[in-house]
Amino acid sequence: MDHGLQSGGASVGLGLMKNLNIASKAILLVGLLAFVASGTVVPWKMEEGKVPAREGPPISMPAVPLGYMPIWRPPAKPQSSAAEFQSTAIDTTRLFIQWAVIIAGTAAGILVAQNREDSGV
Q1: Ramachandran region of residue 117, left (φ > 0), alpha (ψ -120 to 50) or beta?
Q2: Are the beta carbons of 12 and 6 closer than 8 angstroms?
Q3: Taking 50 as the threshold, does the pLDDT of residue 48 lie above it?
Q4: What pLDDT does residue 75 have?
Q5: CA-CA distances (angstroms) from residue 45 to 34, 62, 77, 100?
Q6: Other C-beta atoms within 10 Å of 86: how many?
Q7: Is 106 within the bounds of a domain?
Q8: Inside any domain, residue 9
Q9: What's the Rg (C-alpha) of the chain?
Q10: Alpha carbons 88 and 65: distance in angstroms, whole number
Q11: Is 78 part of a structural domain of the chain?
């Protein structure tokens, strides 16, 4: 029973690709490459932790950014007495913001490129 819909998400995606002009396809390719690159070289952080105090309650250690490193090679912990109570992790907040900016910029670029073609500029 055919309802006029193509089966599978890939075929629907390919149908949308046919409607894109060359400039839009180039923008989409650059956006995809930026998305993949930002997913392989990610922001890292030293997570929050609690350091035991000599007297009183433990001392809270704030999260500290550690920069960008490949996902397969996390940064080494800094040499400090507090570092043994903290762990390194991917800074997902910064990563998701990067991805949102890449997606929004790619979508905006495609819309501009498509509108230019439609208006004959």
Answers
A1: alpha
A2: yes
A3: yes
A4: 87
A5: 21, 10, 10, 20
A6: 21
A7: yes
A8: no
A9: 23
A10: 9
A11: yes
Q: Name the maximum alpha-carbon separation found in the chain.
A: 74
With pLDDT > 90 as the criterion, what percentage of the chain qualifies?
45
Band the pLDDT of 92: cuts 50, 70, 90: very high
What is the C-alpha separation between 78 and 54, in angstroms, rounded?
22
Domain that holds residue 69: 21-119
User: Rounded to an integer, what distance in angstroms lies between the CA atom of residue 51 and that of residue 112?
Assistant: 52
Query: pLDDT category, 2, cuts 50, 70, 90?
Result: very low
> Which residue did the predictor score with more confidence, 38 or 77?
38
Quick check: is 115 in a domain? yes
Q: Over the chain, what is the mean pLDDT?
A: 80
Report d(CA 20, CA 114) in Å as an integer.
7
How many domains would you assign to the chain?
1
